[in-house]
Amino acid sequence: MRVSKSPWLLHYDGSSCNGCDIEVLASTAPRFDVERFGIINTGNPKHADILLCTGGVNSQNKDVIRQIYDQMPDPKVVLACGICACDGGIFKDCYNILGGTDKVIPVDVYVPGCAVRPEALIDGVVKALEILDEKERAFKKEGKRSLTSSEYKALLEEKAGESETKEDTDASES
Ligand code: SF4
Predict the structure, then answer these.
(1) Could you tell me the pTM of the whole model?
(2) pLDDT per residue as tens digits for the range 70-111
(3) What residues form DSSP beta bridges with 110?
(4) Cα 163 to Cα 107, 141, 151, 160, distances in angstroms
(5) Is the Cβ–Cβ distance between 20 and 53 less than 8 Å?
(6) Does 94 contact ligand 1 (Cβ within 6 A)?
(7) Domain 8-173 indexed as CATH 3.40.50.12280
(8) Mutate to test the pocket of ligand 1, among 24, 87, 90, 93 (most ligand atoms within 8 A of CB)
(9) Which of 20, 27, 91, 92 to mutate to test the pocket of ligand 1 (most atoms within 8 A of CB)?
(10) How confident is the model over 106-162, as pLDDT tens digits?
């Protein structure tokens, strides 16, 4: 695979048990060493191309995740790493857990696992690089940008409204 840039990655730990975070660290350490592909970990959303989320979304961090995402420049890609980030995982039914990362921002790549394995994580990052390249081309040609978190929220609400209407129709027909 040929990629046009060395992406910078921002890791955000939502409400994980830290198991996945240890694996993220392992992937940057000498054994797996994602930096050899030119992938640099950054703490600044304005420098990041890839947002890597671990842990579920809860009522306290939902706005933080939205802010980080909105501060990242286009094109950008979001990776949900570990089953908690994919759909809430083992914390799904906790009183304060809303679910996975896609409850608040659009997710491009889902990497399941509990904890996520560094090999799977690296595969996910490679997939993210392909998507980043596609988005870069669309951004340059057509100015196509990612949804903002509020546009995404409106889309989710619209979809929820549609499925409620469909359920009502199904119920009245049966
Ligand atoms: S997926 Fe497993 S290891 Fe990762 S944060 Fe959730 S419980 Fe912890």
Answers:
(1) 0.90
(2) 999 999 999 999 999 999 999 999 999 999 999 999 999 999
(3) 80
(4) 21, 35, 19, 5
(5) no
(6) no
(7) yes
(8) 90
(9) 20
(10) 999 999 999 999 999 999 999 999 999 999 999 999 989 999 999 999 999 998 888
